[in-house]
Amino acid sequence: MKALLVIDVQNGIVKMGDFAQELSIIDKLIEEFKQAKLPVIFMKHVVDEPENSLFQASKGAELHESVRAYADVVIEKQTPSSFYQTNLPVVLEEANVDHVFITGFNAEFCPQFTAIAAFDRGYQVTYIEDAVGTVNTDDTYEMPGLDVKEFVSTALHWSSVIEVLDYEEYQEVYEELV
């Protein structure tokens, strides 16, 4: 069975950029999975560190309004991996999930770590590259010309173990969900 993971679509991140395209695609994917009666699991990053105001128990930590109404299953995590010290493995096992689709924020952290961790645990993984965003830029990493999203997608694709598709490709490959 397939499941959609919606990772860290929280106010603290979404307010930091123009993510209209990513949010629109995430919304379409959620609708398609729900219509197909497949699990949609929301990951929510929470931390105890006061210096990280993005995810403190505040409005910044709340799921963004664009996805909040869909959130039947919300799993809190404290690290970039959605699997580490969470009940995600149990939720996936109980639903007989063997294939996860990755969406969300910040590309080079939580979606990437979750994709790799899912593969390591034996799941088939599809990373929807235009349904993943990041607030970070080449300036953040002091690497002029770096396209963070493209770099992560390329690295995952070149691994030859994680399927990386844009939404249009996803529609063609998984037309039964569309």
From TrEMBL:
Keyword Hydrolase: yes
Family: Belongs to the isochorismatase family.
Pfam families reported for this sequence: Isochorismatase (PF00857)
InterPro entries linked: Isochorismatase-like_dom, Isochorismatase-like_hydrls, Isochorismatase-like_sf
Source organism: Chryseomicrobium palamuruense
Keywords attached to this entry: Hydrolase
Keyword Glycosyltransferase recorded: no
Domain Isochorismatase-like: 3-139
Protein name: Isochorismatase family protein
